[in-house]
Amino acid sequence: MQMAKSPLTEAGNDVFGTIQEVITKLNADANTDWSKVDIEALRKHLVDMYEMTININVISQESIKDGLKVKMEATTARASAALKRVFSAHPMMLEQETGWIMKVESLTSDNTKGQYLLTITTTNSHEVDKIRGLGYIGIMAYGNHHQPHHWSMAKGSNPHSHH
What we know:
The protein is of the alpha+beta class. It has a domain at 57-145: Alpha-Beta Plaits. The protein is built from 6 helices and 4 strands. The protein has helices at 14-28, 39-54, 77-87, 90-98, 128-141, 146-154; strands spanning 56-64, 67-74, 101-106, 115-121. The chain has a 4-stranded antiparallel beta sheet with strand order 1-2-4-3. Helix 1 (14-28) runs antiparallel to helix 2 and helix 2 packs across helix 3 (77-87). It starts with 13 loop residues before the first helix and ends in a 9-residue tail after the last helix.
């Protein structure tokens, strides 16, 4: 059955829309190996991104020499688990893309509350204000590695296999 054309461009929420975009691109690629495609892995990762964006509390953001110090915590158990996974990879990606150093310190011994102290610094004095202006969520969203990362996950590669 053919659906009528719609003036709408958004498929739903951002997770659903991203997945739909990936499926469209996979369908358009004659070389897609559907036996390796893993849309569920991508969905889980996108849920982690949602959790570390929405279900956290930034307790403080403090300017320090060469950068920023952020104290933050998860507000749900899912967000706490997501932060643990995201923080295992993001500092390395940020350093590769920008040269910035992101140190992640758990503030609880078992990290049941998902409390962290993040320190983001640079040796480039012209980028210190940028780091401070970006704050927690800007630092997490910064860079061009997200889309290739998602594409790799969808195609069945495990970009986290080295963590």
